[in-house]
Amino acid sequence: MTGADTIAAIATPAGTGGVGIIRISGPKALAIATQLTGINSPQPRKALFATFKNSQQQVIDSGLLLFFKGPASFTGEDVVELQGHGGHVVMHLLLKTVIAAGARMARPGEFSERAFLNERIDLVQAEAIADVISAGSEQAVIASQRALQGVFSKHINQILEQLVQTRVWVEAAIDFPEEEIDFLADDQLRWQMVELNQALKQMLAQTQTGVTLNQGISIAIVGEPNVGKSSLLNCLTREETAIVSDVAGTTRDVVKEDITMKGIPIRLLDTAGIHDTSNVIEQQGIDRALLIKKQADVVLHVLDGSKTLPKSLESTENEITVINKSDLMKFSPPKGAVVVSALKQQGIEALEQAIIDQVIKTELNESTFTARERHIEQIRLTQYHVAEAEKQLMNNQGELSAEELRLAQNALNEITGEFSSDDLLGRIFAGFCIGK
Ligand SMILES: Nc1nc2c(ncn2[C@@H]2O[C@H](COP(=O)(O)OP(=O)(O)OP(=O)(O)O)[C@@H](O)[C@H]2O)c(=O)[nH]1
Ligand SMILES: [Mg+2]
What we know:
By secondary structure, the chain is α/β, with parallel strands linked by helices. It has 3 domains: 7-120, Gyrase A, domain 2, CATH 3.30.1360.120; 128-213 and 372-416, Four Helix Bundle (Hemerythrin (Met), subunit A) (Up-down Bundle), CATH 1.20.120; 216-359, P-loop containing nucleotide triphosphate hydrolases (Rossmann fold), CATH 3.40.50.300. It has 13 helices and 12 strands. It has a 6-stranded mixed sheet with strand order 3-4-5-2-1-6, with helices on one face. The chain has a 6-stranded mixed sheet with strand order 8-9-7-10-11-12, sandwiched between helices. The protein is flat and about 85 Å long. The two termini are 18 Å apart. The relative contact order is 0.13. The mean pLDDT is 92. Magnesium ion (MG) binds next to helix 8.
């Protein structure tokens, strides 16, 4: 990137810590470092002890100077890291000195944005950096590292390759109009389409898993009073978080607990028992419960096994019927229901598995990567254009089909940023932290 200015930011979190790091990137990075430390031509990638001085030549801190010569740096530009003491005031003083020496404050994510613009990383990898930082479970860290190392991008590029081949095939056919073309009779093309669809379908499932792992899911525990919702929450969190009592209407506020279940970050929400009540406060709790039920990714609908089964058991797609108090079971459970005893801690493993099966459609394995909603949208858009391309082939409309394949290619390219708008980049990098 030519003509770029030099940016700087405190890369370590706000607050106090043993070490604080200022990052500087851009054409003036080295000159600024020299001005502050008096070190003239630091050897790249070598930690040097330095004192940092302000313009009045007062020592404001001392620590390490690290120089990365562009393009072999994170951003692709000259990068300097000043590692000083991690105090709030001293870090800001150091940053102020760096700014006075010719840098400007970096926007959130601007270092990563420059790395992307200088083609050090693609967009998926840039997003993965933010995902590593915000990962909510150990598995999410590992999976986002895979995305950062390019596992997801490689996948996308393989499908792109298939798309391009198909497009070339169709375009070559329409370039010979004198030959009577029958696309339907073209076996090779038909196979290419089948394979393309399969690959996209598989990638969509893997991406959905990646999004779940990245963002985590919310689970609402709902049901009538006294069925054992709070007892179940305590079972799943393995802590005495919520108050349990035999008084119906114990829980009023929504009780939130964050846990990980088989590597998936999960927010559990225990709610007030839903029933008709004239108690104003309880009614407020019930209203909240109904709202939470609507918003949650998964709903555990808890029933009391010691009572009779309700006549109608309507459930939505994201709902799991849980029959509690199996130790006092009065009826044979309906098909698909998970039977547990929160009191005796029985059936909890099976319930966890049922939850995981509900949210994870693909196996968590060595090729699982983290992803975002944005990626899912682009894959769906790609699938749409491929389906349209297929339709046009059926009508023997080669040119229209080729155009749809071109649109499919653009849609897929937007994931890695090969084809992207400033608007999209702005939205992505604004979600980053400062100094990254
Ligand atoms: N026998 C038996 N009792 C249970 C079981 N689970 C919960 N209970 C009892 O059922 C009663 C109600 O439990 P809670 O967990 O408070 O029920 P809740 O659904 O949260 O109730 P509200 O907050 O009032 O809506 C308590 O006395 C629990 O000890 C179970 O598996 N077996
Ligand atoms: Mg309760």
